[in-house]
Specification:
Layout (H helix, E strand, L loop, with lengths): L11 H4 L7 H11 L2 E3 L3 E3 L2 H13 L6 H13 L6 H7 L4 H20 L2 H7 L1 H8 L4 H4 L1
Antiparallel strand pairs: 1-2
Length: about 140
Amino acid sequence: MFAKQTVFVVGAGASAELNLPTGQELKKQISAALSYDRGYYIEFSDHRISDAINEDASSRDERNISNYIEACDLIRSALPAAISIDNFIDAHQGNHYVEFCGKLAIVKAIWEAEKSSKLSKFCGSAKQGISSVSQTWLIPFF
């Protein structure tokens, strides 16, 4: 059908039908992933976020995670007005903490969404998979 290799870039709206978050929903999930409780220790809603931040700080020989907390606060406060998380990260290109925390939260949000999406069934078994996406735009597209 196509003479050359072709790449299709499909936006977040197209994935909503597959039970994946839209851009607006993704921004909310990213903000939630970067929320934390400030007690004696900083505790993120997901221990894997804490672990990844602590590991990155350690690899950079940083004794505390205040730069990461500042980046999380910046992302959470500005994200509602941002066009997208990608646009926000791009606007802060070169700020390791914003880039790291933003991408970390993107991975968490998409990973969680994919587990309960129609794609998880589609990729799981051929028989169940086709029926899980049979009423979506994927079948006519392919």
